[in-house]
Amino acid sequence: MATQQSRSAARMMMAPAVILLLAWMLVPLIMTVWFSFRKYLPLRGGDLGFVGFENYSRFISSSSFWPSVQTTLIIVGGVLLITIVFGVILALLLDQPMWGQGVVRILVIAPFFVMPTVSALVWKNMFMDPVNGIFAHLWKFFGAEPVQWLSQESLPSIVMIVSWQWLPFATLILLTAVQSLDSEQLEAAEMDGAPYLKRFWFIVLPHLSRAITIVLLIQTIFLLSIFAEIFVTTGGAFGTKTLTYLIFQRVLESQNVGLGSAGGVYAIILANIIAIFLMRIVGKNLDT
Predict the structure, then answer these.
(1) Annotated domain spans of the chain
(2) What's domain 73-117+148-256's superfamily in CATH?
(3) pLDDT tens digits, residue range 191-216?
(4) Which residues are CB-neighbours of 42 under 8 A, at least 6 positions away?
């Protein structure tokens, strides 16, 4: 049993890491809030003074603000739906005995370790190119006109690219949960004559609820800041401008740090609203 002296020593040893982590998070946040109240134009006069809530009102009144929020939520929702549904299916398939099972699992998980910019370039040039892409040749083989994916179907294309990147993560978490399932329950249900769909619905799916919750929470946190895939493929055009990309445009393209910082605060507020919503709706599974 730990004594008061050992607990104090543990706190002393952890203190430097905790202080560094807090500084790592708080310093950028404080700077963002500070600049959001100032008119700061790096290439056009620098810091021009305190402007109050002018940056906030300008950013939220922009014609691009609400469409960017809507686009962000559509991408997040689409990717979550695809990765969870197909993640469950792949986890169940990978749990079955097969020849070369280890190699197959590595190949399924491998896309998660590819950099977002690299995977976006691969999808853009190898798969979605309307002239030389694999999809274009496939469409021509069946006698159909190739699709201009990144202009005609831009939003579904982004969802497809991002889903390909995050599907291995969901599969890995869900596969771990599937492997922890008590096989005796499934065997007993099978002996009682329960069909596969009922065994899945009443035994497997409830067992996966906590893993699905973890996937939902972690992926949502990262998907709200999606940027690289859009920058590489569409450049924010054709209705693919997310809130993160809009902030990028305000800061770098417009050279208005104050306006972009106000957008960053809005992004933080949006992320916290969604996090609270998820924790209230599905986070209860973590306590059961």
Answers:
(1) 73-117+148-256
(2) MetI-like (1.10.3720.10)
(3) 767 777 777 787 788 888 888 888 88
(4) 255, 257
